[in-house]
């Protein structure tokens, strides 16, 4: 399995008990959708290694307690700490309309309904208060809030993310500090 065929599901945060169980953070919108996982790919030293799940118990707060097959002690579980977990993209439900997975829009053109083509999506930041799409625009990173009013549509075939940016958003990132014109002096009195 290759990285570009997968999406990151989350990562292993700590051990749980002494029988090899681990706690994973599920970096997804609906963690309960993953309560019947059979296997995951664990990133170990730059390689995706398949691990089969014996038991998974999804908890509140996007966490789950997982028991992998053949990991039967805390000593066997410790090397997995902080490892990223991946699943094949083909396991994702297909979305339509304005819905999208964050990983799929990386590299998409950003097209504003009034301003035209603006830039390219470079990453998406997920934060507790607001998720933000990062776009490269005229040599600066511009952050676009993710919500239905600002990001109304996506064109997967053409790889275009349609946006309706709030007035002044681009100015926040591109407005340079004004300096006095040549020959003028600041009045510091």
Automatic annotation (TrEMBL):
- All copies of the Ribosome maturation factor RimM PRC barrel domain together span 103-169
GO MF terms here are:
ribosome binding
Query: What are its GO cellular component terms?
Result: cytoplasm; ribosome
> What compartments host this protein?
Cytoplasm
Q: Name one GO biological process term.
A: ribosomal small subunit biogenesis
Keyword Cytoplasm attached: yes
Q: Which UniProt keywords apply?
A: Chaperone, Cytoplasm, Ribosome biogenesis, rRNA processing
Listed Pfam families: PRC_RimM, RimM
The RimM N-terminal domain, residue ranges:
9-90
Assembly and oligomerization? Binds ribosomal protein uS19.
Give the record's family classification: Belongs to the RimM family.
> Could you tell me which HAMAP family the record lists for this protein?
Ribosome_mat_RimM
UniProt cross-references to NCBIfam families, sorted A to Z: 16S_RimM
The job of this chain, per UniProt, is described as: An accessory protein needed during the final step in the assembly of 30S ribosomal subunit, possibly for assembly of the head region. Essential for efficient processing of 16S rRNA. May be needed both before and after RbfA during the maturation of 16S rRNA. It has affinity for free ribosomal 30S subunits but not for 70S ribosomes.
Please report the name of this protein according to its UniProt entry: Ribosome maturation factor RimM
Q: Which gene is annotated as encoding this protein in its UniProt record?
A: rimM
């Amino acid at each position: 399995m290759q990285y570009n065929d997968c999406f990151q599901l989350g990562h292993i945060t700590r051990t749980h008990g002494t029988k090899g169980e681990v706690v994973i953070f599920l970096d997804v919108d609906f963690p309960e959708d993953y309560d019947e996982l059979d296997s995951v790919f664990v990133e170990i030293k730059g390689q995706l290694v398949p691990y089969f799940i014996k038991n998974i118990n999804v908890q509140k707060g996007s966490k789950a307690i997982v028991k992998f097959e053949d990991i039967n002690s805390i000593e066997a579980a410790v090397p997995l700490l902080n490892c990223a977990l991946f699943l094949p993209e083909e396991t994702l439900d297909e979305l339509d309309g304005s819905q999208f997975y964050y990983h799929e829009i990386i590299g998409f053109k950003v097209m504003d309904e009034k301003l035209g083509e603006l830039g390219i999506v470079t990453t998406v930041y997920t934060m507790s208060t607001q998720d933000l799409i990062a776009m490269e625009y005229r040599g600066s990173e511009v952050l676009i809030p993710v919500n239905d009013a600002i990001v109304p549509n996506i064109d997967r075939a053409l790889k275009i993310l349609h946006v309706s940016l709030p007035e002044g958003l681009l100015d926040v990132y591109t407005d340079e500090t004004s300096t006095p014109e040549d020959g003028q002096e600041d009045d510091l009195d």
